[in-house]
Amino acid sequence: DVKVTQSSRYLVKRTGEKVFLECVQDMDHENMFWYRQDPGLGLRLIYFSYDVKMKEKGDIPEGYSVSREKKERFSLILESASTNQTSMYLCASSPGTSGISGELFFGEGSRLTVL
Amino acid sequence: AQSVTQPDIHITVSEGASLELRCNYSYGATPYLFWYVQSPGQGLQLLLKYFSGDTLVQGIKGFEAEFKRSQSSFNLRKPSVHWSDAAEYFCAVAGVTGGGNKLTFGTGTQLKVEL
After folding, report:
1. Distance CA B67, CA B56 (A)
2. Nearest CB to B42: which of A44, A92, A108?
3. Structural element, H or E, at residue B10
4. Which residues of chain B does A96 touch, with a Cβ-Cβ cutoff of 8 Å?
5. Which of B101, B103, B107, B109 to mutate to test the interface with A (most CBs of A within 10 A)?
6. Region for A11 from its dihedrals, namely left if φ exceeds 0, alpha if ψ lies in -120 to 50, beta otherwise
7. Which of A58, A59, A105, B24 has the least CB density, counted as fewest CB within 10 Å?
8. B105 with A43: CB under 8 angstroms?
9. Three-state SS at A106
10. Nearest CA in chain A to B98
11. What mean pLDDT, rounded, does chain B reach?
12. pLDDT tens, position by position, for chain A (115 residues)?
């Protein structure tokens, strides 16, 4: 079975802390994504990566950065967490860069609460 | 820029009744369209997708969707709903940029099934 694993299901952090959200996929996919999910807003793309060491901004990159040092791992970093970053974070991956396969494989999500 | 509108935030149906979830998209060219489902506490799972060809597409779990270019719609349907279909449903459109897999999601429709 294909699998996207997010290291932490639930996190509670304090304002100003640095937060790392880790995501690992075992499908040898080229593409990886971080989305944020909020009630009434759906999923919004934060960052994505088409290859190792490559990253592109999504629709809401402010306050976030990412790292992709290995193909299977894509990390989301909150340099200084704020309360408005309390949310559910979803990692996803997909194969290939030629054409569109369309299917994203999602992890189960990381629910972050910033106090 | 591409966008997706799901006009219904919540829908309640009785088990065994038919279901239609609405989705309207905005995209300059031929869209690539998707429906995903999210069960409570889970990541998203692909139900079906439309790339080209037959405008009526079949998906998993007995779902289907019809692409109507004239109405910019891609509504999801199921003839007889089961209690296990209670979940949140997301419509998405893919933009052909970069690796081609950048999906924009709607805000979701929460489905409740009454027994």
Report:
1. 6
2. A108
3. strand B10-14
4. 99
5. B101
6. beta
7. A59
8. yes
9. strand
10. A97
11. 90
12. 669 999 899 999 999 999 999 999 998 998 899 999 999 899 999 999 988 988 999 989 999 999 999 999 999 999 999 999 999 999 999 887 544 556 788 999 999 999 9
Expressed in angstroms, the distance from the first to the final Cα of chain B is 41
B31 touches chain A (CB under 8 A): no
Q: Measured between CB atoms, does B40 come within 8 Å of chain A?
A: no
DSSP type of residue A78: E
Give residues with Cβ within 8 angstroms of A64, minimum separation 6.
A34, A46, A47, A76, A77, A78
Chain A residues with CB under 8 Å of B90 CB are: 42-43
Distances in whole angstroms, Cα of residue B64 to Cα of each of A52, A112, B67: 36, 34, 10
